[in-house]
Amino acid sequence: MKLFAIFHLNLMFSSIPVKTRPEVIERCYWPLLQLIEDQNFPLGIEASAITLEIIQEIDPAWIDKFRSLLDSGKCEFIGSGYGQVIGPLVPESVNKANLRIGNQVYQYILGLTPVIALVNEQAWSAGLVAHYLETGYEGVFMDYDNPARFADDWNDRLQHFPQRALGVSGESIPILWSRSMIFQKLQRLVHGDLELPEYLNYIENMGTGDGWLPVYGNDAEIFDFRPGRYKTEAGSSDESEWNRISEAFNALRQRGHHFYLPSHVLTDLGHKHAGKELLLGSAQQPVPVKKQSKYNLTRWAVSGKNDFFINSLCRAIAAKLEDADKSIPATEEKWRELCFCWSSDFRTHITQDRFHEMSIRLSKLADSVGATMRGPQFDVQGDISTHKGRLLNIETPSTSVTLNTAKGLTVHKASFADHDNVPLFGTKEHGYFNDIDLGADFFSGHLIIEGLGSPKETDLCNITPKILELGEYTQISCGMKIHQGHLEKAVRIHKDKSQIDILYRFNFSARPQGIIRLGHITLMTDKLNPDRLFYKVASGGKSETFSLKGKTFDHSNNVSFLVSSSQATGMTDSTLVLGGEERSLEITPIMQEHAFIAMLTCRQANPSPFVRVSFSMQEMDETCMHAPCGDDQYNFSTGFSIKPNSKTGIV
Predict the structure, then answer these.
(1) What is the pLDDT of residue 651?
(2) Which one in 37, 338, 494, 548 has a CA-CA gap of 20 to 30 Å to 628?
């Protein structure tokens, strides 16, 4: 068998205190170099540029030894960027800056520019391809198992050979496959949960033929060191775990298997089973991530200590830097600082002191460019409505909306003149779908707050609306008391353009625990061709279009009692398009820096498909359990604009 391995180095590891970094270098990084030098294993080593800077400051001898091994061809450096930034969650400009600055630091410290990139946290979108190619990368190291889950036309041979990952505009980049379960097997062996004969039997039964097998592609810091994130972490023993790795690798070599540098995999691109152009994302899983489903995009987007807020402030800073003078050196330094603050580890199990330090640096950076976390302004005002019944109709020359005042100003139906006044979103009422599992009311424009130990909250209550007529729009607004505190809501129907705004203001005693999903839009699919339904969204690059033909999935489904959702999209250009070839909607946060993630639901049903999107600003997983509730007031406003989309985006 042809084998290769890549070890991921990350001194920004969320649960590693700064004071233990020298210990990590001594116990984890030096043994890795010894495995290369003394045992002659041609391994790949990947590190962010930040990690290399930290190592250089603490132990420059390690850098010298690493450079010597690189120069002699005994190992290979794999790049990733300046910081461990989750590409599908940041704007294009940030991905470009992170890769650009990373290469500058790699050249300065190691004297080289890497040709293969490890995709950070194996979080992928097709929009990233153009960035890797533009920066000079010739291949990427990415997980196979998760993209393959929803790929109907992939055969098993693809996993053993290099393929080509397709971008948004037809470009592609060679891909070396990582295998989550295979690297987890090595971890289990080293931590004493598996015996060597069991491990060897597992590896040799992979059936690679003349293809390749990645025996490792994950963290180096978990061997002979315990970050301390979980009570279930394997205990340590007197025997060096790096010796166990050496024993396993030598056993493989003695049985006739050969190790190669990772880049050698690309020499097989011309093989008959290699070089196939593949789309790694799908409607069901627009952003594949490594490992099992509990490990998904939401953990860096809307969980942690307060991911939504820090990601939103980072977006506001990025928007300012995009307009800054690029010729000024200080601008590039601010991009560098932003990439540091957008590191994924600040969004998971980060220690309190490191989170505090990052928060200070982020605030200073925001102040230096004039970026703030804003919210849309509105007041509950106007004349009390005298309409009769639960439904309130509002019409302008461009837009027609019917609101349900018995359900908190949810949208009963809405249409635009640009769509020939055919309703495209609203409420699918109980009894519309034949399937008993869909035997409920599916509203538009509402919110849900739900967490451990507290009742499920919605804004679906009977209200008395106020109507305000202004030259620009008609506003219908209300206030309501819910368990968490006071909620205000407004719907604006514009007069001079086809646009509806739905706004929310939270006045709570503390930030709610659990999920916060809002801006639900239920598509009226009965007048749309079911084979041409789609959604279009950008996750770190140009927008990707995903067909909903025949699909059934729900991104918002919980994975477990603790992990509240399974998938999401980045929506990094603050836009999601949803609809069909006849008509489609463009949905955007009113404040574009608000870092919502979008969750789609699609279900094949009669008499027409059930299609819906919601926008999350908070989810639950094991990382948010450490976030304090706090005693501070939670006062925050946000909202969404919905308008007709001029382009279908159908593929």
Answers:
(1) 43
(2) 338
Give residue 625's pLDDT.
55
What is the C-alpha separation between 409 and 461, in angstroms, rounded? 9
Distance CA 524, CA 442 (A): 11
Q: How far apart are CA 311 and CA 527, in angstroms?
A: 38
Q: What are the structure tokens assigned to 140, written together?
A: 């990427």
Q: What mean pLDDT is reported for the chain?
A: 95
- Across 388-444, where does the E strand assignment appear? 391-395, 399-404, 410-416, 425-426
Where on the phi/psi map is residue 124: left (φ > 0), alpha (ψ -120 to 50), or beta? Answer: beta
DSSP state of 103: H
Residue-level length of the chain = 651
DSSP-derived letter for residue 74 is S
Q: What pLDDT score was predicted for residue 506?
A: 96
Which residues make beta-bridge pairs with 23?
none
Give the pLDDT of residue 12. 95
pTM score of the predicted model: 0.95
Q: Give the count of domains, the chain.
A: 3
SS (H, E, C) 451-500: CCCCCCEECCCCCCCEEEECCCEEEEEEEEEECCEEEEEEEEEECCCCCE
CATH number for the domain harbouring residue 64: 3.20.110.20
Q: Can you say whether the dihedral through the CA atoms of 560, 303, 287, 344 is positive or negative?
A: negative
Inter-CA distances, 482 with 407, 454, 521, Å: 13, 12, 22
Report whether 54 contacts 117 (CB < 8 A).
Answer: no
Domain boundary among 336, 369, 402: 369
User: Is the pLDDT at 551 greater than 80, yes or no?
Assistant: yes
- Assess whether pLDDT exceeds 90 at residue 530: yes
Alpha helices for 59-127 (secondary structure H): 60-71, 92-110
| pLDDT tens-digit map of 101-153 | 999 999 999 999 999 999 999 999 999 999 999 999 999 999 999 999 999 88
> Which of 256, 284, 312 finishes a domain?
284
Q: Nearest to residue 132, comparing CAs of 180, 179, 166?
A: 166
Peptide bond between residue 91 and the one before it cis (omega within 30 degrees of 0):
no
- Mind listing the pLDDT tens digit for each residue in 327-384? 999 999 999 999 999 999 999 989 889 999 999 999 999 999 999 999 999 999 999 9
Q: Which domain holds residue 57?
A: 2-284
* Same domain as 388, residue 341: no
Residues 146 and 37 in one domain: yes
| Pairing outcome for strands 391-395 and 277-278 | unpaired
Pair 493, 407 in one domain: yes
Beta carbons within 10 angstroms of residue 197's beta carbon = 9
Identify whether residues 421 and 538 lie together within a single domain: yes
